[in-house]
Amino acid sequence: MPNPAVQLPSVAISALNDAARANDGRNSGATTVTVSGNWQVHTLTQPGVMRRLQVAFKKLAARSQQSDLRWDLSQIDAIDHIGAQLLWNAWGKKRPPALTMARQQRAFFQRLEEAGPLAVPPAPPRRRLFNVIYDWWCVGFDHLSGFVALLGQFVLDLARMLRLPHRAPWKEISANIYHVGFQALGITAIVGFLIGVVLSFLSAQQLHTFGGDVYLVNILGMSIIRELGPLLAAILVAGRSGSSITAQLGVMRVTQELDAMEVMGLPHGFRLILPRVIALLVAMPLLVIWTDAMALLGGMTAAQVQLGMSPTYFLQQLPGAVPLPNYLIGLGKGAVFGGLIAMVACHFGLRIEPNTESLGQGTTTSVVSAITIVILADAVFAIVFSGVGF
Q1: What's the angle, vertex CA 372, arms to CA 367 and CA 376, rounded to 5?
Q2: What secondary structure, in 3-state letters, does 159-183 show?
Q3: Contact 267, 169 (CB under 8 A)
Q4: In 3-state terms, what secondary structure has residue 358?
């Protein structure tokens, strides 16, 4: 709420009277611009103040002879850098020849005068399409070579663990299995159940039209166990656990914990990468089993409601509708997807720079890249095992 005791900033234009003109031998026809009031930011931002000042400054700028103006700042109650900058801009970023001001006001304009005009950096040269493609290729090759190097280091660390199992980081592996596996049971159960309900409802409507209600078990079993269960679990784990792994490693980079480990001789790969990759290799197939079960439960519930198909009939028909190789393919997908998600998350986590912007950008890129690679691997599975399980 405006303080009525504070005088708002104002600009008054007045011509000199005859006596003043007689005393002013330098500019006999000068006009005095009296600046008064409070020229601080809290009064300048009040409604209508800036518009009124801009109108006054435009009138002064329209005058043909700016040198005839005599600026009097002695009536100003208070001023800050914002108010001084506003007057400085009205003067054309230079001190007017006739200026009266108080001593305490000189420091503001002295600093503005010393700062001078801001030097705008030159516009960057326009990049050509070839340069853009070349930069993308360099970035992609850098990530690919780094990922292959990380994969090679993981193989070496795994061989070291198998050779010296008593020195393996079992506690870290157990803790990571708990975080990425057990704590993900809730979200995978909810999403899997709902996906099963939706898929069952949509399939039942189409099958009922053609009288093929009995084939609902085949559609749900094959699609969920072979395809949707592993893919759904992988996407959820990539968004939940993959981002968490990247953020953990990024924070360790920001807080210089990674540098401290290097100083103490603790390898990143054996203590940080290996436990997380093994944890996801173990937990993902279990999560796939859990997600498949909950999705089939949702589909079985929807089939009972939509088609009146009993759960007993559903469970009796399921083993015959889904051959065992499909189940094994789903479990294999889970292990491969888990390993890829962990490797991608660790790859981007170790590349985070020690600043918060890089931390957020690296986490986002990690999740997007992990989901993309999982879908690409799923397409490879579909092509390689196209003749298996039917």
Answers
A1: 150
A2: HHHHHCHHHCCHHHHHHHHHHHCHH
A3: no
A4: helix
The contacts of residue 66 (CB under 8 Å, 6+ apart) are: 60, 92, 96
Residue with tokens 């007993």: 312
* Whole-number Å distance between alpha carbons of 309 and 214: 9
Burial classification of residue 200, based on how many CB atoms lie within 10 Å of its CB (0-12 exposed, 13-18 middle, 19 or more buried): buried
* Structure-block tokens of residue 224: 């969920």
Task: Answer yes or no: are the C-beta atoms of 371 and 239 closer than 8 Å.
Answer: yes
Instruction: Give the pLDDT confidence of 141-161 residue by residue, as tens digits.
Output: 999 999 999 999 999 999 999
Q: Record the pTM.
A: 0.68
Q: How far apart are CA 28 and CA 237, in angstroms?
A: 83
Distance between CA 296 and CA 319 in Å, rounded?
12
Q: Model confidence over 83-111: pLDDT tens digits?
A: 888 888 888 888 888 888 888 888 888 88
Note whether 246 and 362 are within 8 A (CB). Answer: yes
